[in-house]
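Final report, Chapter 2: Outcomes

The project's central promise was a pipeline that accepts a single protein chain and returns its three-dimensional structure in a standardized token representation, suitable for archiving and comparison. That pipeline is now operational. To close this chapter, we reproduce one record exactly as it appears in the project archive, with the input sequence first and the structure output second.
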Amino acid sequence: MEKITFTLDGQTVSVDPGTTILEAAEAQGKKIPTFCHSTKLKPFASCFVCVVEVEGRPNLIPSCSTVVGNGMVIKTSTDRVQKARKTCVDLLLSDHYGDCLGPCMSSCPAGIDIPGFIKHLAEGEPRKALELIKNNMPLPGILGRVCTRPCEEACRRQLVEKELAICHLKRYAADYVSESGEEYMAVPEPSTGKKVAIVGAGPSGLTAAYYLQLLGHQCTVYDAHEAPGGMVRYGIPSFRLPRDVIDREAAVVGKLGAEFNYNTSLGKDVSLDELRKGSDAVYLALGAQKASMMRVEGEDVEGVLPGIGFLGAVSHDENLKIGARVMVVGGGNTAIDAARTALRLGSEDVTILYRRTRKEMPAWEEEVDAAEDEGVKLDLLAAPVKIERNADGSLNVTCIKMELGEPDDSGRRRPVAQEGSEHVRVMDNVIAAIGQGVDATMADGVTLERWGNIEADSHTMRTNVPEVFAGGDCVTGADIAVTAVGAGRRAAIAIDQFIMGQDVVGDAKPYEHSMGSLEVIPQAVFAKFNNTDRIPMPHLDPAPRSKIFNEVEAGFDAEAVQAEAQRCMECGCRDAHECRLRGYATDFDSDPVTYAGACREFELDESHDSIVYESHKCIQCGTCVRITEEIIGSHAMGFVGRGFTARVKPALDVAMALVGNDGLEQIVENCPVGALTLKTDSVATLSPVFKRPEVG
């Protein structure tokens, strides 16, 4: 049989007669996107995402249905072709309603597979849960206690009654495995012989070291303190975060091969230039440990303490002496921690002075409640203006009453001083807990921003010095620990690319589609869930606990964990990691609002014994319709309606329950998105094993 000869992207190719352009391209190793094509079916050419350019033809043509002809000159990836494909994907996204990932996972700065690990806990598999967590975050015992829980703020369960206790569940997985006596240890890749110096043994530095060790690189971690943890050790009291939890999770990093040099300060004991010369790359995770000033007259007198300095001193000595009357200035978690710590040191009268109302306090509400339960008093809408030290060592603190005015840049109403409201309060100590700043002046040669933070790329964490990377609070300013962890992981991936001679592009960021914020989620999404109370975290009794440093939260038991885990709504798509629409949207950097307009509504059909049909995710490719007609020999699925309102439905627009079982698995298997899935499928989870990401 005489071959057909043609040109494909500049190469001469010969194929058998009747071969389509798509078949010929795939035989040459060229990947052309397609939604509606299946080797089991006749070409349909409905999605038009497989178009190519043929010389001499004015219009782009679908490669799946066009047979190659002699002398054809075909181009599969010109700018015109790519633009057309992107348009097709953008149009499909504009009428696509659903989530790629659960909102909890999307809102987690570390990208933890939250629905996945909770599913393991619901099934009684805490070790599997921990393995999945550690794919993205190596400090679950720490963050399970102190994370500010952006994941829970996004949890859709609160549309039913109350958000899921995600952090408590994460803590349980970590504690259970550790207490079993068989700590989870991931298996690192073979040694690369490369060395990385990490400055800072806080959450970001520990995270970077953990993943770089898994990638086969030798890390040396330097820290100015005598023990690991950074701000989670020296800025958070032990009654919230026991030190043995920090030690055990840092020890895992050491068991992977990382070396730790404590009591070593950058700029004093070792210079950045020395680290650069002795390593293939450097990661700066310096934290934000410089206390902010109150800008109050007399704040430098004896008896006035910085909040971070106070908590750090208590971390070294929980028998520290402090006065009976203590005023803490500030409204964040550090202020709450300082006040509760003062009680445990023996203070009899502890007051938090805050210039706004309780509603505006940035501290966790439950931590404020805990402080009040223990005896801390809140003095709201007040601020200090002057501090004087008396001969007996007491402090006269001149305060002024405030009222709320117009919103400021933070969105909160600005506190305005009330004239003539000055009054004096007598205190033994004042603790200033109004924030922290960054001191990175010892990082010679690294560009700093105007506020002193290190300037680094937010995705790769690379600085102006090619082999120096930076992340965490020293880049963002004082922020939450999970954000620092996310930066450490991103930095590890980018550093690996750099020292292995690859392009430094950082971790791949797949496209994420979302149904939107809590305010716009239709009732149909959560209507099937019954009210089930959130499992409360057991606590020590307030009165006795306020005198000791024992951990306040007692932790969940196995029964509580399973009950809480089963409250998960399993938001997210069962087919997220195989969905072609998501894959192509990532490839083409697509935007769902490019063609914003009318969009299909949420419509879930779970009436069938084995199949779930989510028509709001359907892209009208017609594959399921054609499989039922051409392969199964039935009319179980069909098109209903015409034009923009046309939908793929069970035949005659009946419920899926009335569709037979013959061949249904073929329909599910060939659906290019997550519209048709099996009930036995779980919400898609990440791999439990951290590996070197593929580039390109």
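Archive annotation: Residues 481-499 form the longest helix (19 residues).
This record, like all others produced under the grant, will remain available to the consortium after the project formally closes.
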